[in-house]
Write a structure and sequence with these properties.
- By secondary structure, the chain is of the alpha/beta class.
- It is about 35% helix and about 25% strand.
- The strands form two sheets. An eight-stranded mixed β-sheet has the order 6-7-8-3-9-10-12-11, with helices on both faces.
- Strand 9 and strand 10 form a beta hairpin.
- Helix 5 packs across helix 6 and helix 7 packs parallel to helix 8.
- The chain is globular, with a radius of gyration of 21 Å.
């Protein structure tokens, strides 16, 4: 992969995803722009309902239609627009080039198939190999994620939650995809198992050199695994920077609010700060900054027009009018 291909590995431009519901048109993703470099791990952070999972499903071409549809935009993977691909081409890309680890391993696995057969199924769909080679590869993948190969003939109910998540990771990586999307991969696990899964993902990232989008609301997990972070709010990216700079000096008022709501083990804080108000109704998004109604530094202009991303520091972007006026928030 040359330098240009590495820098422009994944490009999401002006993406709109909408759902037709009984209560109105839900604008789940509203003009999202995002890029990912080859070999990079990007943390996509935001509260529930921000549009993180919908963005991932759009990349995977798994938006259920109806009621959902991609209403506009483009998604380029290594220079190819995924939205222009045929259904057959999309099936080959899913699993072969792009793989996804879903939130709940309990519902991601087929309860009536041995785990090695579920890994083998992925390999058969995307690679040409005889039955013995496929079985060997499936068992090798189990070994790679820390499960004894002889347990491959067992069923999902015979595994713990952490072991199920390892199986799901093995399935996702079975065909060595170039892009891995991990949607809250540790949410359903206890703290000790979370740490083991995160360490496994770190090791596998180095082993496969796979570009990764890690979806999370846990800033600690993001700090552990990610090279860069994109903050998502009401279907839009409001801030993006490398992890160190974003944690050192968040620029957008929403990001600052997120950090103030995280417990600090070194301080003597009796009560955590909260962000006042609620996110906007996705069926009736405001014309201006979606965070304006909750922002304590908002001005009248903030509610009238939508702010564009401004580079406050080198490589550190935020969508805030105040950043453009004073060079800082």
């Amino acid at each position: 992969m040359d330098q240009q291909q590495r820098e422009n590995f994944l490009e999401i431009r002006d993406l709109y995803v909408q759902y037709h519901t009984d209560t109105g048109l839900v604008k789940a993703v509203d003009g999202l722009n995002l890029s990912l470099a080859g070999g990079e791990t990007l943390g996509l952070v935001g509260e529930t309902g921000a549009g993180k999972t919908t963005t991932a499903l759009a990349v995977m071409q798994l938006i259920a239609s109806p009621p959902g549809r991609i209403a506009g935009g483009s998604i380029f993977l290594q220079g190819e627009n995924l939205l222009k691909k045929s259904k057959e081409e999309q099936r080959h890309i899913r699993g072969g080039k792009i793989a996804m680890i879903f939130q709940d391993p309990m519902t991601s696995l087929n309860p009536v198939l041995p785990v090695q057969e579920q890994i083998a199924e992925m390999i058969r769909l995307h690679r040409k190999a005889d039955a013995d080679e496929v079985l060997k590869k499936a068992r090798d993948m189990l070994s790679l994620v820390g499960i004894r190969p002889e347990r491959g003939s067992e069923y999902p109910h015979q595994f713990s939650g952490g072991m199920k998540q390892r199986v799901v990771i093995a399935i996702a990586l079975a065909c060595n995809p170039t892009l891995l999307i991990a949607d809250e991969p540790t949410t359903a696990l206890d703290v000790t198992i979370q740490a083991q899964v995160l360490e496994l993902m770190r090791e596998l990232r180095q082993h496969f050199n796979t570009s990764t989008i890690l979806i999370s609301h846990d800033l600690g997990v993001v700090a552990e695994l990610c090279d860069s972070v994109a903050i998502m709010y009401a279907g839009r990216i409001v801030e993006k920077a490398d992890t160190k700079n974003l944690f050192r000096r968040p620029l957008h008022p929403y990001t600052q609010g997120l950090f103030r709501s995280v417990p600090d083990l070194t301080g003597n804080v009796r009560r955590l700060d909260t962000i006042a108000g609620l996110p906007p109704d996705p069926t009736n998004l405001p014309p201006g900054c979606c965070f304006a109604s909750r922002c304590n530094i908002a001005e009248p202009d903030c509610s009238r027009s939508r702010p564009s991303m401004i580079e406050g520091e080198t490589g550190h972007f935020a969508a805030c009018f105040k950043l453009g006026k004073r060079g800082g928030v």
